[in-house]
Structures are given as C-alpha cells and as structure tokens.
Specification:
It contains eight helices and 17 strands. The chain is of the alpha+beta class and about 300 residues long. The chain folds into three domains: about 90 residues, no CATH class; about 120 residues, Jelly Rolls (Sandwich); about 80 residues, Phage tail protein beta-alpha-beta fold, CATH 3.55.50.30. The strands form three sheets. Strands 1, 2, 3, 4, 5, 6, 7, 8, 9, 10, 11 and 12 form a twelve-stranded mixed β-sheet that branches. It has a three-stranded mixed β-sheet with strand order 14-17-16. A two-stranded antiparallel ribbon has the order 13-15. Helix 1 runs antiparallel to helix 4, helix 2 crosses helix 3 and helix 3 crosses helix 4. The two termini are about 15 Å apart.
Length: about 300
C-alpha cells in the first residue's frame, strides 16, 4: 500500500483512515469538522465511510491478541486490533475489485501466477501475477486492453492489422516489436524491449525506441522516452523483483501480487521508508521478512494472511 501525499486518495482509503483515527480516541472538534465536511462533500464519501465502518465493526469482534513484543509507547499509537479491522476492510475492497476485473477478462492470472498465451494471430503474451487482458480482435485491427497488472507482448507482424494495447486511457501501438506494459497508480508505463512503440495519451503521441520507456497518467500526455533499465523492469519474467531506492509502500504493493494476503503499515511514515534489494517472487513471505530485517521493523502476523509492520 502506497501513501503518496501528492496523489489524490481513493474515498475508501480516506474512509479507512478516518476509522483508524476514531479508534485512537474521540476526535477533536477540528477533526470532527473535517470529517463532517468530507462526508458532506460527496455521496460516494459517505457510502465509502459506511462500508468501512460496518466491516471494521465485524472484524473488531475477532479475538485478536496483541503481539507479545510491543514497541515503546508513543502518543496516538494505533491499536493493533483497530489496524487488523481496517486492514481487513482494505483486503475485502481489494479483492472485490479484482473479481470484477477478472470476470470481464479473456486471460488472467492469480496471485503468484504467470501465464504465457499464444493469440490467434501468432502473437505471444506473457502475463505477470494478478494481471488480466481483454481481446478486441477484428478483421482490420488487433486491440487488447490491459485490465490489471502487467504484460509483455511479442507481436506477430501483420501490416494490415495494427496491434494496439490500451491501458489507463492511453494506447501503445506496436511498430514491429516486443514491449512491456504495466499499470501503475493512475497511469501506465511502457517499456520497449525490441524495435519501437508509438504511445498515445492525452491527445499526443510519442515514439519509444528499443531500450527506452515512457509513462503517462490517465488523461495526460506521455513523458518523453528515456533510457530504461530493461533488466530491472522486466525482472518479473525471471521470477525476480528488483527495487532501488523505492518507497516501502510501493514495494509491498508489488509483493502483494505474488501472494494471497495483505501487508499493512501501522504508520504512514513506515510505508514511506526507502527499500533497495532483489527478491524472489516464489517466496514473497521471505521477501517481507528480509525487508523487516533491513529496515529494523517488527511484524505482527494474524497467520500469514495479514501482516502488520510497526517500529
């Protein structure tokens, strides 16, 4: 889970944060006024809050023991039981969204699964974990939509039928090539492993050459193509996750695609810490353990399905 203060948060994430604040103790007048204003601003806010509140109440009834080893007391520390309840709420929301995506896909993968597919035109697709694509082939075009995750495409030549991958409101058109497309928060990244790709977003087009990457936010123009660390960005095809000075929240999100379960930071500052390392995707629990040790964190496990990181 990533906490990026510069990126607008989803109403469900904000609702969970308010629930956590309430679990800490009575809200101040200022906090209550802020909550009331947020709830009144949009009906979707109130709906998200009611859902998070209801699920939190259900999970709070679980008999959750506090970990034997506790960090030193700090002001406004969120109780473990409250974090369990709200993290479980996020898990429910996450998987509910996954179900709807995979229902409409033609090819998909689950947690920790990769898949190689040969399409009817001879093109090859390699799907990363928790990924899904939908096909829209016609006699005049080959269009695909990346619904979730990441995929690598090796395109069979056919000048009469352009090969186009749509993602996050943009499109990548193969120019006799192989390339990788990954959905990112509010956008997508395109990495060219062979030849060229034309990327269109926000009404503008850029052409990325072999060994380059470009990215875009939904509705915005793609960035100027730049030299990419192709080995790092496509390491998932070799069963590895390579990270270099990345936020822990982003690393945990990537690891989450390779296991059933959820890892939650008890404080935002924890998820903002920087991580560098190479991790095996066939053992994501070991990767989490390695990160704990490297950052000096402790973990409370409600089985291996729900892990809470604290310092």
């Amino acid at each position: 889970m990533s906490f990026d203060s510069d990126t607008p948060e989803d109403p469900q994430d904000i609702a969970v944060d308010w629930i956590l604040r309430q679990k800490e103790g009575p809200l101040t007048r200022k906090e209550q006024a802020a909550l009331d204003a947020w709830l009144a601003a949009d009906a979707a806010h109130a709906a998200a809050f009611r859902e998070a509140e209801g699920l939190s109440a259900e999970f709070s009834r679980l008999n959750v023991r506090r970990p034997a080893k506790q960090p030193q007391a700090r002001p406004r520390r969120r109780p473990v039981a409250a974090a369990v309840a709200c993290a479980a709420t996020l898990v429910f929301i996450l998987f509910r969204g996954d179900l709807s995506i995979f229902f409409f896909s033609d090819y998909s993968t689950g947690a920790g699964e990769t898949r190689r597919v040969t399409l009817e035109d001879g093109s090859r697709v390699e799907l990363g974990a928790r990924s899904a694509i939908a096909l829209h082939f016609t006699p005049t075009s080959r269009r695909l939509t990346l619904l979730a995750g990441e995929a690598w495409f090796d395109v069979a030549p056919d000048a009469s039928r352009p090969f186009i991958v749509e993602a996050a409101g943009g499109a990548a058109t193969a120019l006799g090539t192989s390339f990788d497309v990954a959905l990112e928060e509010n956008g997508a990244r395109v990495t060219v492993t062979e030849h060229r790709v034309a990327v269109t977003s926000g009404g503008k087009e850029v052409v990325a050459q072999e060994g380059q990457e470009t990215s875009f936010l939904r509705g915005s123009s793609a960035s100027a193509p730049a030299t990419a660390n192709v080995a790092k960005l496509t390491a998932w095809r070799r069963g590895r996750l390579i990270v270099e000075d990345e936020a822990l929240g982003d690393v945990l999100a990537a690891l989450g695609r390779y296991r059933h379960g959820f890892v939650y930071c008890l404080r935002r500052e924890i998820c903002a810490r920087r991580v560098t390392g190479v991790y095996r995707m066939d053992d994501p629990l070991q990767a989490v353990a390695d990160i704990e040790a490297a950052l000096g964190l402790s973990a409370y496990r409600l089985s291996n399905y729900l892990i809470l990181l604290y310092d």
